[in-house]
Input
Amino acid sequence: MELYLVGNENEFQEGQMRSFSVGGVEVMVVSISGKLYAIGNVCTHRSCPLSDGFLEGFVVTCACHGFEFDVTTGEVVGVPLIENEPSYEVKVEDSKVYVRI
Output
């Protein structure tokens, strides 16, 4: 597993979902209450980008079909008919933000 630089800590605004392609993986990073979380950015239902969706608390809702995922774990919320999103470790070092893929 490798660490990939995705930006500086001050570039992540509260509740703003940002997408990145790192190590051949599409990832969404979001800051909630000062903590950064990273999950897969491709909805496991129909491959829509989750970063285009809506965030309420710790739950992102896919803009395409309304499926919901917990951004802290990647787990499906509500309807268990689709796969969970992968969850990735986020590391902050010297104000730089890294995602481990």
Q: What stands out?
A: Residues 3-100 form a domain with the Rieske Iron-sulfur Protein fold (CATH 2.102.10.10).
